[in-house]
Write a structure and sequence with these properties.
- This protein has 382 residues and is mostly helical.
- The protein has a domain at 232-328: Cytochrome p450-Terp, domain 2.
- It is built from 16 helices and three strands.
- A three-stranded antiparallel sheet has the order 1-2-3.
- Helix 3 (66-78) crosses helix 6, helix 5 packs across helix 6 and helix 8 (178-191) packs antiparallel against helix 15 (319-328).
- The chain is globular and about 70 Å long.
- The two termini are 32 Å apart.
- The structure holds carboxymethyl coenzyme *A.
- Residues 12, 197, 228-230, 232, 262-269, 312, 314, 317-319 line the site of carboxymethyl coenzyme *A (CMC).
- It catalyses: oxaloacetate + acetyl-CoA + H2O = citrate + CoA + H(+); propanoyl-CoA + oxaloacetate + H2O = (2S,3S)-2-methylcitrate + CoA + H(+).
- InterPro entries: 2-MeCitrate/Citrate_synth_II (IPR011278), Citrate_synth-like_lrg_a-sub (IPR016142), Citrate_synth-like_sm_a-sub (IPR016143), Citrate_synthase (IPR002020), Citrate_synthase_AS (IPR019810), Citrate_synthase_bac-typ (IPR024176), Citrate_synthase_sf (IPR036969).
Length: 382
């Protein structure tokens, strides 16, 4: 029996340091709160790096040189197609099934067709190659399933388009404007990594048993889906839709706060003074609203943001602006969380690889609060 004390209990693991990591830092400069990927601030990455460069940074440890980027991007572009049995499966899964559930199944199926399926789970180089294939294929998986569930013809991946433009083209059947492509790419950069959030933690727990990278990503997708985590971007859109018009916003939010409702897209376990990702994305929402010529959703969002921030001291998190951003791109609400997943797979993979490179089984303790020392009565006396 181990000797650790069960007196120290941290509900929700708040404040527990469960890992060392060189991937992301949410402390920011001098502990002031902020987000850095491998030492680079997201503010700098937002203006200075594409999703491909950021994914390379997470998986390979530093930003790529131009030749490294060319090769990495080439590998992604040539890995975008899906195994045919997976595409056939999309035709059989009922269209009512949520795309996040289908994405979870997709990654599991993709593992069966990975050319290195039998590589040892601790093979660092094979894991990086598997991660690269997942980054490329998950985007196609999300887009193909979306088109099939809507009864639309598939739009094949195009090797002449970058990751973001190709995804939007596969979903909408139209190459996006440069403003849309840029905003989408930025949202992927901001979604791609976030230290030991719940889904990353579950991926690390899974592979800490020396399970494989695909199992870790499947676990992470299942965890991300919940509305307190990645599912919040879909819920945030439902808030805006329920409010419906700028004129309703003030009374809607005051009623909701009076009823002590949880307002989705607000609050954060780590950031108590504001989520830096939300600040960056909000600016892009304004730009896209201008491009589509409809600022209604911005005028609905603003009074809600003001009220929740000032009255509850809960600033918006990344999921609040991203919901509007994806709406402006004509993306179905049920794609919002799968898009989060297809961005985050780079961060999840980096953490899985880091875990396996320095592994120790994750096995915490629980404090027992059930009845003690019970005796079994014969069944006829229970
Ligand atoms: N609206 C209203 N009240 C809230 C909210 C909210 N969004 N968030 C927290 N609270 C209240 C909560 O009701 C509780 O009040 P009381 O003490 O009176 O019972 C108090 O704040 C503490 O809540 P908690 O859930 O223990 O706090 P936490 O730090 O664990 O919460 C959170 C973090 C993200 C789960 C929570 O803020 C929340 O549920 N937000 C809405 C869902 C959401 O937007 N999730 C996305 C998170 S960020 C990006 C991502 O992972 O996708």
């Amino acid at each position: 029996m181990s000797t650790e004390s069960v007196d120290r209990y941290y509900p929700g693991l708040e404040g527990v340091i469960a890992n060392e990591t060189a991937i992301a830092n949410v402390e920011g400069k001098e502990g002031a709160g902020g987000l850095e990927y491998r030492g680079y601030s997201i503010e700098d990455l937002a203006t200075g790096a594409s999703y491909e460069e950021t994914a390379f940074l997470l998986l390979h440890g530093d930003l790529p040189t131009s030749s490294q980027l060319r090769e990495f991007d080439g590998r992604l572009r040539s890995s975008r197609t899906l195994p045919l049995p997976l595409v056939d499966l999309y035709r059989q899964i009922p269209s009512s099934i949520h795309p996040m559930d289908v994405l979870r199944t997709s990654v599991s199926v993709l593992s069966h067709y990975d050319p290195e399926v039998n590589a040892p789970p601790t093979d660092h180089a094979a894991n990086v190659r598997k991660a690269e294939r997942m980054i490329a294929q998950m985007a196609t998986a999300v887009a193909y399933r979306e088109r099939i569930s809507k009864g639309l013809d598939l739009v094949a991946p195009r090797e002449d388009l970058d990751h973001s433009a190709n995804f939007l083209n596969m979903v909408n059947g139209q190459v996006p404007s440069e403003t849309m492509r840029r905003a989408f790419d930025l949202s992927l950069v901001l979604y791609t990594e976030h230290e030991l959030n719940a889904s990353t933690f579950s991926a690390r727990v899974t592979v800490s048993t020396l399970s494989d990278i695909y199992s870790g990503i499947v676990a992470a997708i299942g965890t991300l889906k919940g509305p307190l985590h990645g599912g919040a971007n879909e819920e945030a859109w439902k808030v805006l839709e329920q409010v419906g018009s700028p004129e309703n916003a003030e009374s809607w939010i005051q009623d909701a706060l009076a009823r002590k409702e949880r307002i989705m897209g607000f609050g954060h376990r780590v950031y108590k003074t504001g989520d830096p990702r939300a600040r960056i994305l909000k600016e892009y929402c304004t730009r896209l609203a201008a491009e589509v010529g409809d600022d209604r959703w911005e005028r609905i969002a603003e009074p809600i943001e003001q009220a929740v921030t000032s009255q509850k001291n809960l600033p918006p998190n990344v999921d609040w602006p991203s919901a509007r951003l994806y709406h402006y791109m004509n993306l179905d609400i049920e794609l919002y969380t799968p898009i989060f997943a297809m961005a985050r797979v780079a961060g999840w993979s980096a953490h899985v690889i880091e875990q396996l490179d320095h592994n120790r089984l994750m096995r915490p303790r629980a404090r027992y609060i059930g009845p003690p020392n019970r005796e079994i009565k014969p069944i006829e006396q229970r």
